[in-house]
Design goal:
The structure is a single chain. The protein is mainly alpha-helical. The protein has one domain. The protein has five helices and no strands. It starts with a helix and ends with a helix.
Length: about 180
């Protein structure tokens, strides 16, 4: 077996495993998010465990309304964007697992992943706004709040997305050039 075939077989094996893991994450991410919102007893503990429940939420147990609105806002905005990205990343590794390493479909999946990274930043910001509002609805009038955040990590994620977007654009053009060359020969 030539070395290039061995390398391709390794790529296909690793990609098949990643395809399987990403397939499991599609239902797994929302399930874990739902479990987090269902089982965390109060907002302060949720914040410490990484669920964005926002400081300033009313002390004490979370109400069913808090949990439902928090889960809905978390799922629809930032998590929805993440799931979109996982879907396309899964498809990309599915192409690799089938031995399709370069091509227009690969470039399109990479473009979708790049857009996911870029769109995740405003989705996360909007999610923070909605979750903070949901967590403060139980506060007395005048004590409700809206929180918004933008970190250097968010900016870095958007920049990586922009770089990946340009790379996907280059890949589309390279695939077109390869098709043109193949049709000439």
């Amino acid at each position: 077996m030539p070395l290039s075939d061995i390398r391709l077989a390794r790529i296909q094996r690793a990609s098949a495993w990643l395809h399987l893991v990403l397939t499991a994450l599609l239902p797994g991410i929302p399930l874990l998010l739902a479990l987090g919102w269902a089982l965390i007893p109060d907002a302060r503990l949720g914040d410490s465990l990484g669920l964005k429940m926002m400081p300033g939420a009313q002390p004490g147990p979370l109400t069913l309304l808090d949990r439902t609105m928090g889960f809905g806002a978390s799922l629809l905005l930032p998590t929805g964007v993440i799931l979109y990205g996982v879907w396309h990343l899964r498809a990309l590794f599915g192409l690799y697992a089938r031995g399709i390493i370069l091509g227009p479909d690969n470039a399109e999946r990479l473009r979708a992943l790049a857009m996911t990274l870029i769109l995740w930043v405003p989705a996360q910001m909007l999610g923070d706004i909605v979750v903070s509002l949901a967590m403060s609805l139980d506060n007395a009038a005048g004590e409700r709040f809206v929180a918004i955040s933008l970190s250097s990590n968010d900016v870095a994620i958007a920049l990586v997305g922009a770089v990946a977007l340009v790379i996907s654009w280059v890949m589309v053009e390279a695939a077109r050039a390869a098709e043109d060359s193949a049709s000439i020969v």
